[in-house]
Amino acid sequence: CYLSRKHGLTLDNLVSADVVLADGSLVEASESSEPDLFWALRGGGGNFGVVTSFVYKAHPLGPEVMTCLCYYDFENAGDVFRFYREYADSAPDELAAYMFAAKVPPAPHFPEEYVGRPCLIIHSCYAGSVEGGREALKPIADFGDPFFKAYAPMKFTELQEAFNPGVPHGKRYYWKAVNLAKIEDGLVDVVSEYCSSIPGEYVLLGIEPLGGAINRVEP
């Protein structure tokens, strides 16, 4: 997901797939071979066959990328939401900035008085040079008064695993999502109200910016 605005969705980077069809035959689906099946595999639904292998495009990256992670007191929710909205709207394709409402986990690097309380988190990654990312992420690093901030390069492979402790295996998570054209003021008010008392440590609301290369694909 960190690379989608720069390089498109995973399905947009699929080159070919080996597929076992219902009659037991094996075919290769690509732009030039079984193009209708290839189209269907990239978002047409399910039940077209059993895919036994995928070939994807690869893109150069890293090994380090620039990241910024800021935790804000929920009392400042309105200001944080509005800053995030303006920042995400003007961000370059290389930048993925996510916002979460969640409870502060009991980790040693968080001030004790914030643990267990609702907070807003802005988590961002720049899919380009570290120096370019340092400049692009500086507005987040300089915004507001976060009670925790990490603004530093990070190995991309480690970034991919950074949130694993927050979603341990076996919890039977339930996810729902909606697509929004933009973050309206009314949404800010509703989310601020409902997330002011988050009911559990594994409950969160996340906002993920799409756009960029994702939107530059034929319908």
The ordered string of helix (H) and strand (E) elements is HEEHEEHEEHHEHHE
Number of strands: 8
What are the segments in which pLDDT stays under 50 over at least 5 consecutive residues?
A: none
Main sheet strand line-up:
7-4-6-5-8
Biggest sheet character: 5 strands, antiparallel
Helix content: 10-25%
Number of helices: 7
Distance between the termini: 20 Å
- Overall shape: it is globular
Beta-strand proportion: 25-35%
Radius of gyration: 20 Å
Global mean pLDDT? 92
Indicate the structural class: alpha+beta
Task: Outline the structure in words.
The structure is a single chain. By secondary structure, this protein is an alpha+beta fold. Helices cover 23% and strands 26% of the residues. The longest helix is centred in the middle third of the chain and has 13 residues, at 77-89.
Attribute tags:
219 residues; alpha+beta; 5-stranded antiparallel β-sheet; 3-stranded antiparallel β-sheet; 7 helices; 8 strands; 26% strand; globular
Q: What's the short story on this structure?
A:
The chain is of the alpha+beta class and 219 residues long. It has 7 helices and 8 strands, in the order αββαββαββααβααβ.
Topology, element by element:
Elements: H1 4-7, E1 14-20, E2 26-30, H2 35-41, E3 50-56, E4 64-73, H3 77-89, E5 95-103, E6 118-126, H4 130-136, H5 138-142, E7 148-155, H6 156-159, H7 185-194, E8 205-207
Antiparallel strand pairs: 1-2, 1-3, 4-6, 4-7, 5-6, 5-8
